[in-house]
Design goal:
434 residues, alpha+beta, BirA Bifunctional Protein, domain 2, Rossmann fold, nine-stranded mixed sheet, five-stranded mixed sheet, RNA-binding
Length: 434
RNA sequence: CGGGGCGUAGCUCAGCCUGGUAGAGCACAGCGUUUGGGACGCUGGGGCCGGAGGUUCGAAUCCUCUCGCCCCGACCA
């Protein structure tokens, strides 16, 4: 994309409403604009990041055998009456009436809806297990939205729902998701730690939160340094092997890890290499058995012909929250440092001297080759402005084309994460980035 | 939902206490000089001072109500 033709409104100064780094940088880098408290418009650069995160989440869900679908944002109140949650959920749920005065709501989650869909079509134990997910906007009317997209009212979430014949099957589904989550977060450039968690209003009795470490995290966390060695994406574990899943689960849940609410000072004393810090919750998985299938009348024919009530679990990832979380974990004073996997563009191309024949020729050439993967800063601005904006926006690579090097076909390649700069030929620059 | 604070130009903010024709810096447009880390000069455009009532000859400024937003706490992907 050409920056001169793009809506990427970077700000030199920090808007007054932003307190924490990620919120500040998301506004300054032109990723989002707030439209109401806790509700954001995603501008082109931010939307690209959001889609990149969603893509990785999707790939790992698919790899774990989950099926993607899409459920609506607006749901009928009736469904929630069947589970008993319509009254239980409280003012956090945005309730709406349509023109016929029917009670509707903007979904904060989809257990009821998926259970309803599932019970309409699935009749036999032969069709289980299944895991269905979607990536959809949710709304929770938080009393106090804050921290930008990290605690918004409207947010994009991946939520998956598993259906199994019994507890043993549900545990396997649960472990698959745990592995998929670890791989997902690793691909996003994050170190995530599964911690024993409260189940909250979703309910159930087996639950882990996925916490990433960041100094500005919302909760105090305690964990064994052993987690720093775990590499879930090594390929060591297969989704198809129950033995692998069991080993993976054990490795991920044996060392001590807990948030403030679940912290056990006595057990903590016995941890060999203790670490404390702040954490951001980016995912949450639950097993809740028949909490929804039972009251909502989901029953299928079992092998003996008798009705069988499936055991369920649900698995959430805060996709929009992750944008903020990644920035919290990866930035410096100058701006964002995007991991390659989620960056809005692979690289920025800085033409330091618009109108210089050599600079223009090199830039045109590079732009023709990389096109949409590249943000071409072709603005009529001074070099300093372009450097500052490129650092702020956090592109993984900066290709700097100035009159000094351009004369003999050289460009400067800068790695944003490390600050390392090298002077290379155009061909070498393209090869490094590819 | 309790406590605190703020709404003045696209952004950061001054002016309000003590009422008298709306300000600065940045950004934007034009011209000139600059040109490898957020340049300089000149000129120019841009505001129903969040909204509604009230007090007053006169309100950004004082009073009442209201809406919005932010922060701390209690609660959550």
């Amino acid at each position: 994309m050409r920056l001169s033709r793009s809506l990427v409104p970077t700000l030199k100064e920090t808007p007054a409403e932003a307190q924490i780094a990620s919120h500040r940088l998301m506004l300054r880098a032109g990723l989002v604009r707030q439209t109401s408290a806790g509700i954001y418009a995603w501008l082109p650069a931010g939307w690209r990041v959001l889609q990149n995160i969603a893509r990785i989440v999707r790939e790992e869900q698919d790899a774990a055998g989950a099926q993607e679908m899409l459920m609506p944002t607006i749901q009928p109140a009736d469904l929630w009456r069947q589970s008993g949650r319509y009254d239980a959920y409280g003012p956090e749920m945005l309730r709406i009436r349509d023109r016929h005065d029917r009670e509707m709501l903007y979904g904060p989650t989809n257990e009821e809806m998926i259970t309803d869909i599932f019970r309409q079509s699935v009749k036999s134990y032969r069709e289980l297990p299944q895991n269905l997910y979607h990536i959809q906007w949710k709304f929770r009317d938080e009393v106090r939205p804050r921290f930008g997209v990290m605690r918004g009212r409207e947010f994009l979430m991946k939520d998956a729902y598993s259906f199994d014949l019994d507890y043993e099957g549900a545990v396997i589904s649960y472990r698959k998701m745990m592995l998929a989550y670890m791989r997902t977060f690793q691909r996003l450039g994050l170190k995530a730690i599964p911690m024993v968690a409260d189940t909250g209003p979703i309910g159930g009795n087996l639950s882990h939160e996925f916490i990433i470490l960041a100094p500005t995290g919302e909760s105090q966390v305690y964990y064994d340094a052993a987690f720093e060695q775990i590499d879930p994406a090594s390929g060591e574990f297969s989704f198809d092997s129950n033995a692998d899943l069991a080993r993976c689960y054990e490795r991920l849940t044996t060392p001590y890890a807990a948030t403030d609410e679940k912290h056990d000072p006595v057990a903590w004393e016995g941890v060999p290499d203790r670490r404390e810090g702040r954490g951001i919750e980016v995912g949450h998985i639950f097993y809740f058995g028949t909490k929804y299938s039972e009251p909502m009348g989901l029953a299928i024919a079992g092998p003996d012909g008798k009705p069988l009530v499936p055991h369920m679990g649900s698995y959430g990832i805060g996709v929009s929250r992750l944008v903020g979380a990644i920035i919290e974990a990866s930035h410096d004073d100058a701006g964002i440092k995007w991991p390659d996997s989620v960056a809005p563009w692979k690289a920025a191309l800085l033409n330091l001297k618009q109108g210089d024949a050599a600079c223009d020729a090199i830039c045109t050439d590079i732009y023709r080759r990389l096109g949409n993967d590249l943000l071409y800063d072709d603005r009529e601005d001074r070099a300093g402005v372009k450097f500052a904006d490129a650092d702020l926006m956090g592109h993984p690579w900066h290709i700097v084309v100035g009159p000094r090097g351009a004369a003999n076909g050289k460009v400067e390649l800068k790695r944003r994460a490390t600050g390392e700069r090298t002077e290379v030929s155009v061909a070498d620059a393209l090869a490094r980035i590819a």
